[in-house]
Amino acid sequence: MPALITSIARLVAIAVVCTLAVPSFSAATATLPDFVELSKRLKPTVVNIRTVKNIKPKQRTRRSPNTQQSPYDNFFDEFFGQFFDQNQQRPRREQNLGSGFIISSDGYILTNFHVVNGADEVLVKLADGRELKGQIKGGDEKFDLALIKITDKEKVPALELGDSDKLEVGEWVMAIGNPFGLSQTVTAGIVSAKGRVIGSGPYDDFIQTDASINPGNSGGPLFNAEGKVVGIATAIVANGKGIGFATPINMAKAIVDQLRETGKVTRGYLGVQIQKLTPELAKSFNLDADKGALVADVIKGSPAEKAGIKTGDIILQYEGKPIVEYTELPRMVAATPLDKKVKITIFREGQKSEVVATIDKLKEEAEGEAAAKGEEGQANDKLGFTVSELTKDLAARFGYAEGKGLVITEVKPGSPADDTGIPPGTLLLEINGQRPTTLEQYNKLVAQLKSGDVTRLLVKLPDGSVHYVAMTLP
User: Which of 99, 140, 144, 388 is catalytic?
Assistant: First the structure.
């Protein structure tokens, strides 16, 4: 009898556990979006975009009258020339397909820049089947965004733009677009990751999703469960499955007024060259965490220099927003209105401080800076490389101007320096914050280094870029 009571008690306990577990499962199921209702409501706001580009024929190169010819040249020119001329003189019309979505009732449409770039004609097909001519009002290649305007007698349905900053990984999303010309295709998935950098440009900040995105989806909207646009389908991994990327809608919201008013985007400019803060570099600066943007160089006369920012500073916050990945800073600065005063939190020599910079206009084509200069000599290779004062011959060898400075002439294979990727011809600007300009100064600094020390160098590579590198001495 006691055994029976014990068994019944176990069954009751299991039943209670199962009963308690059911509500959490039901609650999770209840959060699943109603994709049927969302599709019915949102499809009328999504458009198909067809672009036409007129390709002019290439003219066949004619042989110069002074060129020596063989007896057969005229025959081949007459026989084959007629055939090629007939084909080359016919203009071609190249067509491409993409997607877009209506953001205002008066007919403004957002899409990707690459969808309409170079188009001579833009045709927009609405959900009701009508095809209207579209006018490109503005575009920006670096953000890969474009604004189109259509004119209709009646107001058109428009979407509500959401807040992509509030989007969470694992959240349900839905895409509508025109993949492979299959209009009004609806796919769904989740947010796989945020802040993806895929190498498409300087302002990469993509939302990764497994909602199916294919060629033709470009420019189409990515919705959250509330039916608000949180992203713009932009890119895919060619050989991947379930890997698509969307531009955050907040990036578009920051520039759409500029596109509407001026047709182009004016980006903010701070004037710093930054790099990733590795754990080794963070340790060398006595910073506990490796979060922030390390300033490798400050442009003369820039807002950053005027604000007091220096090489070696670590930017921790921009307008109160923490810099987790260094790639976040260029996007924040670019989206800042001109002449706005911004608060920047920096870390310098073990202390945090705040500076105020006035954002200027970014020049799209940066002017090249003069290379460093120097004299003659040679130093030991304790760090894994050989250093010389920059002579006239070394300057000519590595493509620098003459003057004072130190240049790395050789890098020992397998050394700590070799591991950092420093190539010969690199200019040595700093060692642990000190700037040696002669071999004597360099040797004194190196003599103080001990085995196991983390040494921080500021170098200027042969391509002109300035970087910090850190190495642990053997």
Answer: 144
